[in-house]
Specification:
Elements lengths: L2 H10 L6 H8 L2 H21 L7 H44 L2 E2 H11 L2 H4 L6 H9 L16 E9 L2 E9 L4 E7 L5 E2 L3 E3 L4 E6 L4 E6 L2 H14 L2
Parallel strand pairs: 1-5
Antiparallel strand pairs: 2-3, 3-4, 4-8, 6-7, 7-8
Helix pairs in contact: 1-3
């Protein structure tokens, strides 16, 4: 083995046990001295790298990492809570403003009829006295009530007209059913005498004590129930 190859292998591993390497080492004092220098250098490097690890260093490093993660999570959670609070505040303000805004009785009545489908399928037979009991609990109606049965009443319940508690009735018309909403007077109310959409039409009656909003599919049903109410509601 020539000297260049020997030194190259010696730099790579001074403890090389290759037979050819060992033979070259045994035949040259220079090679032996060179290997001794390399091993001494390796020893110094190893000694320098043997730095004692401080007690509990690993635990401290782990704790530091955990604290950093915890801080990041708290920061993120705080941001999310702040965002949620802001959204809730805006939603609350928007809802409050919406409930305090103008109330279009016609459009609300149409929306109630379209979405509260259970009312139109009810087949009850409710007395006007039972309806009067509900009317008596509404604020702002005073003594408004029915003094006689306004035809058959299939359905009677409370409903909310954008913050105005009202009564929702379903009465019998000549051909079909008629929805009647009895709404206490309110300064926010917007009331058109007639209104309609693609399926229903409606009319409104204003008395001294209430707004009565009627919705039906057929005009003749509206006319019939309107006459019944004019005679029985005081």
């Amino acid at each position: 083995m020539d000297e260049l190859k020997f030194r190259r292998q010696a730099y790579g591993d001074p403890n090389n046990q290759d037979p050819e390497f060992l033979e070259a080492l045994s035949q040259s004092e220079d090679n032996q001295a060179f290997i001794a220098e390399l091993k001494a250098l390796d020893g110094k490097i190893s000694q320098a790298l043997r730095i004692p690890v401080a007690e509990e260093l690993s635990e401290k490093l782990l704790l530091k990492q955990q604290l950093a993660v915890h801080h990041a999570q708290r920061k993120r959670t705080g941001w999310m809570l702040a965002m949620a609070a802001s959204v809730a505040f805006v939603a609350g303000v928007s809802f409050s403003l919406w409930r305090q805004g103008p109330v279009d009785l016609g459009q609300h009545a149409l929306a109630h009829v379209r979405h509260e489908t259970i009312a139109m399928t009810s087949d009850a037979d409710i007395s006007y006295q039972a309806v009067n009991a509900k009317l008596a609990s509404l604020k702002g109606l005073g003594s408004a009530r029915f003094n006689s049965q306004p035809g058959r009443v299939f359905y009677s319940t409370f409903c909310d007209f954008q913050g105005i508690e009202s009564i929702h009735l379903v009465l019998a018309g000549e051909q079909g059913k008629v929805t009647v909403f009895i709404v206490p007077p309110e300064h926010r109310v917007m009331l058109a005498e007639a209104f309609a959409d693609s399926e229903y039409r409606g009319e409104a009656i204003k008395t001294d004590s209430a707004y009565l909003v009627l919705v039906a599919e057929y005009p003749q049903d509206l006319d019939a129930v309107k006459e019944e109410i004019k005679q029985s509601f005081i």
